[in-house]
Amino acid sequence: MEMHFDWAFFWQSLFHPSGAFLSGLGMTVAISVVSMVLGLVLGLIVALMRLSRNRALRIIASVYVWILQGIPLLVVLVVIYLGLAAANIYKFQDTSVMGVVLAGSVKAAVVGLTLNCGAYVSEIIRSAISAVPEGQTEASMALGMTGFSSMRWIILPQAVRTMIPPLGNQFNTLMKNTSLLSIIGVSEMFLVTQSISSATFKTFEIFLVTGVYYLLLTTVWTILQNEIECHLSRQLGIPVKSMLSKAQV
Asked: 117-141: per-residue pLDDT in tens?
């Protein structure tokens, strides 16, 4: 059977997406942002545990990173949402928050993405902290600062600029990984695309539209990331031009 590319459907879906598609897009962005924020918190805790003098904390953190980096995210999601329920350990239930129903699959998705993201973020943070010269810590201690104060005011601020590029790449990866959430029934952009494809039989057209929207999401974040990097560089007295500034020239 001869197939034709439906340009009218493609342009209509690209510039005038359906309400369901926009809802899926919003779900993709919301889950990505929440999971990244929680992943940052978890990653910082795990990184500090791995840098701790306490051997037990170092072992726990190392095992966590080893497991989460070694198991595919798809498997992690299935185990968290379906495996825990099948084993009668925990079942993610739908809950109502301020009149808005939060699906159990969405909560499981956030947990899975956070755990996965936290493992990679912890290594980014640990590497950035380790890159700060040890003399900085010694100098702060000599001034009477505690270990926590030294980390909070001396080490982390210097490490942040080193963290930004890999953390930005991690967020881009996280946004693209949300497409895996369709396996547990989360109505994000990829699952909605599959539904539209099944209903219209315009598979190539609608998936191409989805690819464009994923590209737009990652491009917008890349520009924002560049602005953050430039802002931090200017604070350190390093003259740089952002992508937006170069585009205006």
From this structure: 999 999 999 999 988 887 777 777 7
